[in-house]
Write a structure and sequence with these properties.
Number of strands: 0
CATH topology: Serine Threonine Protein Phosphatase 5, Tetratricopeptide repeat
Structural class: mainly alpha
Number of helices: 7
Helix content: over 70%
Largest sheet: none
Distance between the termini: 42 Å
CATH superfamily: Tetratricopeptide repeat domain
CATH class: Mainly Alpha
Number of domains: 1
């Protein structure tokens, strides 16, 4: 049976809603269409971040910061996108056990945030780092998932 708030104990609701909001926001963020007016996308990303802050481990919380950076960048909210992107980039690039796909996401989202904030040199550097990181992803399925977000660099 699929987990839902009705068959979960109240202390597990945060995790349920963190996962649901996170998955909804990531799915919406992959749309090629203009998402700048998608308030539901912004709400879902912030809801996921809030729930992860309550029940998540540090990795969950930082992944939610990455999602916030992506959503704010896609919605042309440059200053906040950049602030989130800088924070998550530092976290994921300073760790020596960041998976190849997550490092590629880090550079991709950082590039999108840099572009949204008008930081051309940083955009170019992060775009190049994203291209290099994507090429190093060993699993084809992981690479395809990252490319759904990277497409926003290529399309704009």
């Amino acid at each position: 049976m699929r987990q839902s708030p009705d068959n979960l104990l109240p202390e597990n609701w945060h995790k349920y809603f963190a996962i649901e909001a996170n998955n909804a926001a990531w799915s919406m963020s992959e749309a090629v269409a203009d998402v700048s007016l998608r308030i539901d996308l912004l709400d879902a990303a912030h809801a996921a971040a809030w729930h992860w802050r309550v029940v998540g481990k540090e990795i969950n919380q930082m992944r939610s910061v990455m999602l916030l950076a992506l959503v704010h960048a896609r919605m042309n909210m440059g200053p906040s996108a950049w602030a989130y992107a800088e924070r998550m980039r530092m976290y994921f690039t300073d760790k020596n056990d960041t998976p190849d796909w997550e490092l590629a996401f880090t550079h991709t989202v950082h590039a999108l945030a840099a572009r949204a904030f008008g930081k051309t040199a940083e955009f170019q550097a992060s775009r190049q780092a994203a291209i290099a990181s994507i090429a190093l992803i060993r699993d084809k399925n992981d690479r395809e998932v990252v490319l759904k977000t990277f497409q926003h660099i290529a399309h704009n």
